[in-house]
Automatic annotation (TrEMBL):
<keyword id="KW-0560">Oxidoreductase</keyword>
<dbReference type="InterPro" id="IPR036010">
    <property type="entry name" value="2Fe-2S_ferredoxin-like_sf"/>
</dbReference>
<dbReference type="Pfam" id="PF13510">
    <property type="entry name" value="Fer2_4"/>
</dbReference>
<protein>
    <recommendedName>
        <fullName>NAD(FAD)-dependent dehydrogenase</fullName>
    </recommendedName>
</protein>
<dbReference type="GO" id="GO:0016491">
    <property type="term" value="F:oxidoreductase activity"/>
</dbReference>
<dbReference type="GO" id="GO:0051536">
    <property type="term" value="F:iron-sulfur cluster binding"/>
</dbReference>
<dbReference type="InterPro" id="IPR042204">
    <property type="entry name" value="2Fe-2S-bd_N"/>
</dbReference>
């Protein structure tokens, strides 16, 4: 069933975040790239936290295109898989953000130009 939530194109301005940081604000900042746009996170943030600090979804479903924001948040449900720009799969809820990391929220972007669907 299609979601009634709108999906944000890459060129669109940042949407309101799903999460708001209320503690541990003194950790060192780092930069990473979300759909080609440079954004910031704090050292020790999981990819899930870092992405949801920027927008309301972690990825778009490769099956329906509907926005996904994770489900169990503990690595058991498979709902938070993301891809790096080079096509590697990462589980957002258990992967720490690293300086310069490049991730995509749309499945099609990860396989574009690689000659195969993943």
């Amino acid at each position: 069933m299609p979601s009634s939530l709108p999906s944000t194109p890459a060129a669109a301005p940042r949407r309101e975040p799903q999460f708001m940081r209320v503690a541990e604000t003194q950790r060192a900042p780092l930069r990473f790239f979300l759909d080609g746009h440079e954004v910031t996170a704090l050292q020790g943030d999981t990819l899930l936290t870092a992405v949801l600090m920027q927008q309301r979804r972690v990825r778009d479903s490769e099956f329906s295109g509907a926005p996904r924001a994770g489900f169990c948040l503990i690595g058991a449900c498979q709902d938070c898989w993301m891809r790096t720009e080079d096509g590697r799969r990462l589980r957002a809820c258990s992967t720490l953000v690293t300086e310069g990391m490049r991730v995509l929220t749309r499945f099609a972007d990860a396989s574009a130009g690689q000659g195969e669907a993943r």
